[in-house]
Amino acid sequence: MKHLLLRILFPILVLSAVSYTIHRDILLEREGACDLRNRIVGARLQKDGVLPYFHKKWKPGQSMRYYDPTDSNGKEGLSNITATPFFHALLYPLAEFPQRTISYWWLIIQYGILIIIVILAYSVATTPFQRLSTILAGTLFLFTEAWKMHVLSGQMYIIIPLFALLFYCSLRRPDNLLSALTAGTAAIALLLIRPNAIIFFLPFILLLRNYRPRYLLVFFSSVLLIALFHFGNKNNRLYWQDYTKAIDASVKMHQDAILNHETYNRIVVEEWEGWNTRQVKEYTKHNQPVYSENGNVFVLYFQLFHKPIPVNILSAFAVLTIVTALLLFYFSSTKYHNVSLENLAMFSFCLFMISDLFSPVWRHQYNTVMWIFPLVLSTAIFTWSNKWIYALLGIALFLNIVNIFAIKMEHTIGEYLFLIIFLYLSITRNLNPTR
């Protein structure tokens, strides 16, 4: 009787929670999904054969095709466009629609990606409790300030854990050549969307001996073919050269911003591509506020010591942290004789997130959505022997949901707690679900 009630009550609670968040997020989306616009402008510029990253600021009288109400073109001449040329290419099918239509679809896409992530993690779980925990984790994640900020801004970071999870799930089937193709496609897509993801893939070298030559052949062939197809286009190579220059300029601009909060004159157009600026302001007044924190190491350093940390010192600390974690993982994994795929996936993602936290470019609350990969993976392989660690994980998730004004930067505390917990699990526990 108890199990029957749980089977009935749990789906009702989940559906009620998701219905509430969908309604809330529809209201948030009406505030403009501001960051989505620079991705669409970047995609349109690339489709038109124009270098996007230093494109001149839009001026009244020009076509609305490249208009971005948040563009600034600061001292470095840098446009507001930050995504990679490959990600812009993924947006080509959407780019010609009016921005209002694109924003609707992007909200649906974000939810679709989250559902796929939960389904993939659910497929890893082997017990009813693990499956329920995975669904619960995915549902609760919708209540985090990170997810709300992600929807409000129209961001794209939820794609990172999707490809990471596709990569991991594909590696779980070493005898399936379709899985090898999927793993290779996910790997190169993730690299071309987030180049620092190379750190995520490097530790997987330890597993190469576990896969047959034909699996590796299909995997590396898919990586190579997609890379050749993308970079074989002359314009794409030029866009990447432009992107590399933009990264350097962006680092300088973001580091200067910690001392000099420069203000920009933005050009406001009342009606453009389905948006009405006055309506957006009204929606913003009546919606729940969404809170964002900057959790970068360089920002925390400045808040503690009231002076900036040089980028080369910041980079040195990042390398030292990553190398130390690698050594701890390597020496602890020897007692398991074989490195578990689950341990490696969770650990490798922590390395990637360390590089993200040490980034010299300001990161906002929406970056935290990337933690959903190790979160749902950990719930899918839950064991009662680690229950107290999972209790701490619940606290970390709770800190990313609530706004406790008596605590300074509670979301950032929760995010760094995620990092510590997932590092601890991956280094000190055998997470292989079939052990």
Structural key phrases:
1% strand, 19 helices, single chain, 435 residues, 2 strands, mainly alpha, globular, two-stranded antiparallel sheet
pLDDT < 50 stretches = none
Mean pLDDT: 90
| Radius of gyration based on Cα positions | 22 Å
Question: What kind of sheet is the major sheet?
Answer: 2 strands, antiparallel
Query: What general form does the structure show?
Result: globular
List SSEs in N-to-C order: HHHHHHHHHHHHEEHHHHHHH
Helix percentage range: 55-70%
How many E strands? 2
Please give the count of helices. Answer: 19
Span from first to last CA?
32 Å
What is the strand content? under 5%
Within the largest sheet, what's the order of strands? 1-2
| Structural category | mainly alpha
List the helices and strands and how they pair.
Elements: H1 2-29, H2 34-47, H3 85-90, H4 92-95, H5 99-124, H6 128-141, H7 145-153, H8 159-171, H9 177-193, H10 198-201, H11 213-231, H12 234-257, E1 271-272, E2 275-276, H13 277-286, H14 297-305, H15 311-333, H16 341-357, H17 372-380, H18 387-401, H19 410-428
Antiparallel strand pairs: 1-2
Helix pairs in contact: 1-6, 5-6, 5-8, 5-17, 6-17, 8-9, 8-17, 9-11, 15-16, 15-19, 16-17, 16-19, 18-19
